[in-house]
Design brief:
Length: about 450
């Protein structure tokens, strides 16, 4: 792999064991985290679009909401299933190359959707291509950066990077909803493609794969960490780590809780909130504005959750997050209406605070139980998140076609969140003896 700094032209064994140079006043890890944050913001445009497409595509092509939901579910499932392999590919080829290719795939898939005339093309372009690229930009990206560049403040950094996606939603959702309303859905899709392409040179020029690339120790450590050789057999390693983790109880509990997390966020609210609000005669831009407000408070909630994760038991945090989310969903059918009123705003603010507050404690528990393999294990846990999201994205559309409303989906998701809270409570504590899978 091409090296990016003179500091890495030496063999790993020849490098000093201490820091190669004095740490700057602002550690380089924070600059890498900032670049990662901006990159995730730029890539977040594609995540703002699915909920805006359901009604326009239904009206233009007469496709059922279940069919459109199927394309979204393929996107969400691939987003998750690609993540663990992407984490392993980052170990093999480097973060920069994997992320740059992923952004290009997103741009191609989004641009091709403007040419489609059949439902299978929506599944191929938006479901498969965008889902594949998005999976390589999943939260495993943030976990990999955090694990490599930080030994302290990992919970806080994880929260900040997780919040980047919500920041992107805040920026793009109002713009894309205006485009869909005023100029149809095609300019919105092209905007997503151009945004993804615009981020590629930013990633290539500014992102670095490892602290050793610039000759510094990870943040919070006084010991220089040589850059490991490229990991061979990325796909094999991802599967090997899965088979090892699957023999442990905490993996299945984390995967189960995170599947419910995905079902109640990406699969439910992000995909179906706008058409559900429109069913109650709320204007599309108003509903999109509410989702953008979720993005505002998502940032605060996730960063605060990262701070809490550095200080409190992650299991208890997860149990509280899921229990409160489930209660709020049970009230949502009573809050939807043609206008925005204070109880609905309270729901939006609360749901935003809780949206992905589950991510920092989940990553912390993966790290606690699985050590150096935690990024790949979290990739598989994230796969369950997206499979849960995919199932509800599809079944939510089917439920709307069958029952004429989304009420049954809100109630079912609230019940699932209660189950997730119970699952989080029984996750056992991990030990410091977590080992790396060869």
């Amino acid at each position: 792999m091409t090296q990016t700094s003179d500091a890495v032209t030496q063999p790993a064994d020849a490098r000093p064991k201490g820091p190669a140079r004095p740490n700057p006043r602002i550690h380089r890890a924070w600059w890498v985290a900032a670049v990662t944050f901006v990159t995730i913001i730029g890539a977040a445009a594609f995540r703002s679009l699915p909920g805006l497409l359901i009604d326009p595509l239904h009206n233009e092509f007469d496709w059922s909401r279940g069919t459109i939901g199927l394309a979204v579910s393929v996107n969400l499932a691939l987003y998750g299933l690609t993540a663990p392999f992407a984490a392993a590919l980052m170990d093999r080829f480097g973060i920069r190359k994997v992320v740059a290719v992923a952004l290009t795939i997103i741009a191609v898939g989004s641009a091709l959707t403007v040419t489609m005339s059949a439902a299978w093309q929506l599944i191929l372009y938006w479901g498969f291509l965008v889902g594949l690229g998005a999976g390589s930009m999943a939260l495993a990206f943030a976990a990999t950066v955090t694990n490599r560049w930080f030994t302290k403040r990992r919970g806080l950094v994880t929260g900040i990077l997780t919040a980047a996606s919500a920041s992107g939603q805040l920026i793009f959702l109002p713009l894309l909803s205006w485009m869909v309303e005023e100029h149809s859905w095609r300019p919105a899709s092209i905007t997503v493609a151009l945004t993804a392409l615009a981020v590629v040179p930013f990633v290539w020029l500014l992102l670095r794969d490892h602290p050793a690339d610039v000759g510094v120790a990870p943040y919070g450590s006084d010991e220089f960490v040589p850059k490991p050789p490229p990991a061979q057999g990325a796909a094999k390693r991802a599967v090997t780590v899965l088979l090892s983790a699957a023999r442990t109880g905490p993996f299945w509990l984390l995967a189960g809780t995170f599947a419910i997390c995905g079902a109640s966020t990406n699969g439910l609210i992000q995909t179906h909130f706008i058409p559900a609000a429109h069913d109650h005669h709320m204007p599309v831009q108003a509903a999109a504005g509410l989702l953008a407000v979720i993005g505002v408070f998502d940032i605060l909630g996730t960063v605060f959750s990262g701070w809490l994760t550095d200080r409190f038991d992650s299991r208890r945090l997860l149990a509280a997050y899921y229990a409160l989310r489930g209660i709020s969903l049970l009230f949502l059918p009573m809050l939807l209406g043609p206008s925005i009123h204070p109880p609905m705003l309270f729901f939006i603010v609360f749901y935003g605070l809780d949206w992905v507050a589950t991510v920092p404690p989940t990553i912390a528990l993966c790290r606690e139980h699985y050590g150096e393999d935690s990024a790949i294990v979290f990739g598989w846990v994230l796969a369950s998140h997206q499979v849960g999201a995919a199932v509800v994205a599809f079944l939510g559309g089917v439920a709307r076609d069958v029952f004429g409303s989304y009420d049954v989906v809100w109630y079912a998701s609230g019940t699932l969140c209660a189950a997730a809270a119970l699952m989080a409570v029984v996750i056992r504590k991990g030990g410091a003896e977590a080992k790396t899978v060869d």
